[in-house]
Every structure is written in C-alpha cells, then in structure tokens.
Design brief:
Layout: E1 5-8, H1 18-31, H2 38-41, H3 49-59, H4 66-84, H5 96-105, E2 110-113, H6 119-125, E3 134-136, H7 149-158, E4 165-169, H8 172-180, E5 184-188, E6 199-201, H9 209-217
6-O-phosphono-beta-D-glucopyranose binds at residues 10-11, 18, 21, 44-46, 48-49, 52, 77, 114-118, 138, 171.
Length: 218
C-alpha cells in the first residue's frame, strides 16, 4: 500500500488561532508605538516568536535590550494564552476532522509541523492529539520557517522520504519551507498570498477525499 507523509501546520490550518497571534502582537506593537497592517501580518505567520518580535521592532525602527526583548516575548505569550484559555473544539477549522479521519481510514502517516511552542497544549485542548503519529513543534527546532527543519524532522519521524510528503500551510514562510524541503505544498488561504504553493485551497471544504486519494496513489 502507498504511504505518503501528511504534515499539517497548526495555527491557521487546523485551528483558528492565527487571529489570536495577530491580536496579541498588534496590542504589544501598539503599546510600543508601532503599528502594522493585516498585510504585513502575513510575514509574521509561521515564523517563530523570536523572529516575529524582531520583525515588529524592525518595522518600528526600535532596538531594545535583551532583557526587555525576553520580557516582551513573555508578555505576548501571556496575552496569547489568555485568548486560547477558553479554547474548545469549536475552534477547529472547517472540514479538518473529515480530512484527518479520511487519512486515518487510509492508514496514512500524519505529523504536525508547527512553529508554535504551544502546539501540544492546543492539540490536547481541541482533542485532536490522537490523529498524529508524530508531533514536531517550536520546542523541537532551532531554525524558524522558511527553514525546512521542522518538516524534515517530521518526515524522518514518520519514516517517509521528503519527496513523498505533503504539507498543509497557511503561511508564506511555511509554503516556502515545504518547497525547500522538496515536499508538495498545499496552501490553505488566499491565492494572492500563497501563490508559490503547489496547490491552493480557500479552506478544507474545497479539498475532496478523491483529491487526497490522488495524492496518496500518485
Ligand atoms: C506559528 C504562528 O504557528 O507559531 C506564528 O503562525 C507564531 O504566528 C509561531 O509566532 C510561534 O508560536 P508560539 O505559540 O510559540 O508563540
Ligand atoms: Mg500557520
């Protein structure tokens, strides 16, 4: 039987948490007298907490001490955690369970490939942990997307060659990482943002079981 490695990003692909990252960064930036647009926010998606703060400070032309940097990262995370504290299964994005169930029925290896250090907490909170054969998150990598490290580790854990892996991603950096890893990138979101993906869908309602089947057998 054919085996492909299916790798899912978390924020903005499995759960609707990209909006909470945006709100928390925006609040922190505004407190520093820095503003950024939703368009600029696309550059923060998929990248690590450290990289995100570096970018925001860069936009505002601000330099701060290491101590302040660490304190601001903690502040952003506390704010983010307050948004997800009440999180439940209603935050799972549409049709994600159908796809995960289909992959399970077809006996396909599935991994998480997320930049977030909160990934395990979130998967537990929304009760999806059992669908994953491997979990690679922000605690397991040293290089942020678009570096392919997170996806290459996932492929290794699944025992599937990178060229036989498929990555679902909502971020510019994540699609780039998948492409660099020599995997098939499937963008979830807007064509104008994710034009570099091999396939692009608005959301999982546009992805049929037949399409997943074709990915497995091709
Ligand atoms: C990614 C998000 O999944 O995780 C980014 O798209 C976020 O917005 C990154 O900065 C790191 O997440 P966390 O939860 O460790 O701060
Ligand atoms: Mg994402």
């Amino acid at each position: 039987m054919n085996k492909k490695g299916f790798i899912f990003d978390l924020d903005g692909v499995i759960v609707d948490t990209a909006k909470y990252h945006f709100l928390a960064w925006k609040k922190l930036a505004n407190d520093l007298g820095i503003d950024f647009t939703e368009e600029e926010n696309e550059q923060l998606k998929g990248v690590s907490r450290v990289k995100s703060l570096e970018k925001i400070l860069d936009w505002g032309n601000k330099s701060i001490s290491d101590e302040k940097f660490t304190a601001l990262m903690a502040k952003k995370n506390d704010d983010y955690l307050s948004h997800i504290a009440e999180m439940d299964e209603s935050e799972i994005l549409i049709d994600v369970p159908r796809i995960l169930n289909f992959l399970r029925e077809r006996n396909q290896p599935v991994s998480l490939g997320s930049a977030s250090k909160n990934a395990r907490t979130i998967l537990e909170r929304v009760n999806l942990m059992d669908y994953f054969n491997a979990i690679v998150d922000g605690n397991d990598v040293s290089k942020a997307k678009p570096d392919p490290e997170v996806f290459l580790i996932a492929a290794e854990l699944l025992g599937v060659k990178p060229e036989n892996c498929l990555v679902f991603e909502d971020s510019v950096a994540g699609v780039e990482a998948a492409n660099i890893a020599n995997m098939i990138s499937i963008g979830i979101g807007d064509k104008s943002v994710l034009g570099h993906a091999n396939y692009i869908f608005k959301d999982f309602t546009e992805i049929s079981n037949e399409f997943i089947n074709s990915l497995i057998t091709n």
